[in-house]
Amino acid sequence: MYDIVVIGAGASGLIAAGRAAELGAKVLLLEKNDRPGRKLLITGKGRCNITNQAATSELIKQVHPNGRFLKHAFSVFSPDDMISMLSRFGLECILERGGRYFPESNRSVDVLNALLEYNRAGGVETWYSCRADRLLLTNNTIEGLSIQRGSKLSKVTSPSVIVSTGGQSYPATGSTGDGYKLARACGHKIIPVRPALVPLETEGDIAQRMQGLSLKNVKASVWANGRKLADEFGEMLFTHFGISGPIILSLSRLVVDEMLSGKQPTIVVDLKPALDEKQLDKRLLRDANEQGKKKMANLFRQWLPQTMIPVFLDITGVDPEKEAHQLTAAERKKVLFQMKNLAFEITGYRPFKEAIITAGGINTQEVDSKTLQSKLVKGLYFAGEILDLDANTGGYNLQIAWSTGWLAGESAVKQGASLS
Ligand SMILES: Cc1cc2nc3c(=O)[nH]c(=O)nc-3n(C[C@H](O)[C@H](O)[C@H](O)COP(=O)(O)OP(=O)(O)OC[C@H]3O[C@@H](n4cnc5c(N)ncnc54)[C@H](O)[C@@H]3O)c2cc1C
User: Fold this and answer.
1) Residue minimizing CA distance to atom 46 of ligand 1
2) What would the CATH number be for the domain defined by 4-195+358-419?
3) Atom 29, ligand 1: residue with shortest CA distance
4) Which atom of ligand 1 is nearest to the CA of 51?
5) Residue-level pLDDT at 418
6) Residue 287: CA atoms inside 13 Å, Cβ hemisphere, count?
7) What is the domain class of 199-349 according to CATH?
8) Which terminus, N or C, of the chain has the lesser number of Cβ atoms within 10 Å?
9) pLDDT band at residue 415, thresholds of 50, 70 and 90?
10) Cβ atoms 280, 336 nearer than 8 A
11) What's the pLDDT band for 246 if we cut at 50, 70, 90?
C-alpha cells in the first residue's frame, strides 16, 4: 500500500514523486522503460532548455489553448522555484538569450541526475520496466491500479494516482499515449491529439532544392483562405521534405489545425523584413545600376545566400546570364515580390515521431486547476504533457511539466492527509 503512485518517470512524474515524498508521503514511481527521463535527456539538443525567465503573465500567454488554467500551478511553482530546487541538488543554471535557462554544464543528464537525487532524498521507491495497465476505481474513487512487469499482471493499492505519462510525440522515448487510454477508461474526454512544434511538408521541390540552408532574421506568415493568420520573426530551415526551424515549428500548431479543419495553408516568407517594398526596390535598382556589367547570378550574391540563387532565379524567370543593366522593370518587380513573398504551399506535416510536443490531451475542463485532481474521479491527478496544454519552444513546455508535477504531488499529499 502506497500513499501515492506516480505513473511515468519523465519530467513531470519525477517532480511530482519528489515533491510528494518531500512532504512525507510513501511514494511509488512507475516507469515502463528500463530507465528514467529518456525524453528529458534529448531536450534542447541534449542541453535541456530547463525553463524560461518569463513572468507568470508571459508564461500563460505562451501556452495553448488555455494558459490561464496554469495560473495557479505557475504561482505555486515558478521558473525561479525550479532553478532554486535544482541548485539545492547541486545543479547551477545559466541564462541565455530569450530568457532561456540551461544547466551550466550544458548536459541534460545533470538535470535528470538532480531530479533523481531529489527522489532519493525523499525515499521514493521506483520500479522500472513496469507499465501501468489500468486504473482501479470504486464509486469513482481511485483504489489503485493494475500493473504489468514482463508478462505478469499484478495490483498496487493506493488512494492517489498521478498520471504523468506524457503525450504521444517521440514515442521511442516511452510517451506512446498510454495515459489517454487510462483516463478514457475512467470517463475522461480526450481532446484529439495532434503533432505540434512539428516540421511542415511543402508542395513542389523548391524547399528540397535548398535543403540544409538555414535563414536567419526572416519573417514567416501563415495564410489561409486569403487571410493572414499569424507571423513569426527569426530562423527557419529547408529540409528534404519542406521547412522546419524555430519559427516554422512555432507556426506549425496553427498550420496543423488549419489543415485538420480542411483548409490549405500557405507559409509566406519575407526574406528582407527589415526593408519595406519601397526601400528594397530602391536598393535593387541602385545595385543593378551601379553594377550594370555584373551577371544577374553574381548580383544576386549580395541579396541572397548562394544555395538560394539558382532556385530564386528559376522562380522569378530571370536569366542568370543577363547583365544587371538589362534587368527590366517587370523583372525587378518580380524579384522584389518574391523577396517579400516567397510562398510555400503546405501539403502536410511530419508524424508524431518528429513532433516536439503533443497538442490536445486531457480536457482541462474536467480537471481542477487548483489541485490538478480529476473532477470525475477522486484521487486521480494529471501532470505534464498529457494535459491539453502545449507551448512554444523556449523552456515553456518543461515548465508546464515542473509546475503541474509539483502541484499534483503536493495536492495528492494534502488530499491524503485530509482523508486520514
Ligand atoms: C526532441 C525534443 C526536445 C525537447 N526540448 C525541450 C526543451 O529544451 N525545453 C522544453 O521546455 N521542452 C522540450 N521538449 C518538450 C519536453 O520534453 C516535454 O514537454 C516534457 O518531457 C513532458 O514531460 P512529461 O513528464 O509530461 O512527459 P515525458 O517526459 O514524455 O515522460 C513520460 C514518461 O511516462 C512513461 N510512461 C508512459 N506510459 C507509461 C505507462 N503506461 N506506465 C509507466 N510509465 C509510462 C514514459 O516512458 C516516460 O518516461 C522537447 C521535446 C522533444 C521531443
Assistant:
1) 174
2) 3.50.50.60
3) 10
4) 11
5) 66
6) 16
7) mainly alpha
8) C
9) confident
10) yes
11) very high
**DSSP per-residue letters across 387-404:** BS-EE-SSSHHHHHHHHH
Rounded Cα distance between 134 and 151, Å, is 15
Q: Does ligand 1 lie within 6 Å of residue 14's CB atom?
A: no
Strands (E), 225-275: 227-238, 242-244, 266-270
Q: Give the cell for residue 320.
A: 542568370
For residues 224 and 262, give the distance between their C-alpha atoms in angstroms, rounded to a whole number.
Answer: 10
Residue 262 CB partners (closer than 8 Å, separation 6+): none
Question: Cell 545543479 sits at which residue?
Answer: 91
CA-based Rg of the chain, rounded to a whole angstrom?
25
Query: What pLDDT does 420 receive?
Result: 57
Query: Residues 291-298: contacts with CB within 8 Å, 24+ apart?
Result: 291/324, 292/323, 292/324, 292/325, 293/323, 293/324, 293/325, 294/323, 294/324, 295/320, 295/321, 295/322, 295/323, 295/324, 296/320, 296/321, 296/322, 296/323, 296/324, 296/327, 297/321
Q: Where are the domains of the chain?
A: 4-195+358-419, 199-349
Residue entry with cell 505562451: 62
Does 299 contact ligand 1 (Cβ within 6 A)? no
Mean pLDDT over residues 161-169, rounded?
98
Cell numbers placing 269: 516568407
Can you list the positions of beta strands (E) in 239-362? Answer: 242-244, 266-270, 342-349, 357-362
398 lines ligand 1 (CB under 6 A): yes
Task: State how far the alpha carbon of 179 is from the alpha carbons of 261, 385, 399, in Å.
Answer: 26, 10, 20
pLDDT score at 287: 93
Residue 94, beta-bridge partner list: 102
Q: All 3 cell numbers of residue 98?
A: 530569450
Pocket test of ligand 1: the residue of 39, 49, 115 to mutate, having most ligand atoms within 8 Å of its CB, is 39
Beta-sheet strand order (sheet of 130-138): 130-138, 141-149, 152-157
Q: Is 385 in the pocket of ligand 1 (CB under 6 A)?
A: yes
Q: Would strands 51-52 and 27-30 be described as parallel, antiparallel, or unpaired?
A: unpaired
Task: Show the cell assigned to 185.
Answer: 477508461
Query: Ligand 1 centre and the CA of 42: distance in Å?
Result: 10
Residue 8 to residues 34, 41, 134, 367, 382, Cα–Cα distance (Å): 11, 15, 14, 19, 11
Q: Which of 162, 184, 182, 180 is nearest to 171 (CA)?
A: 180
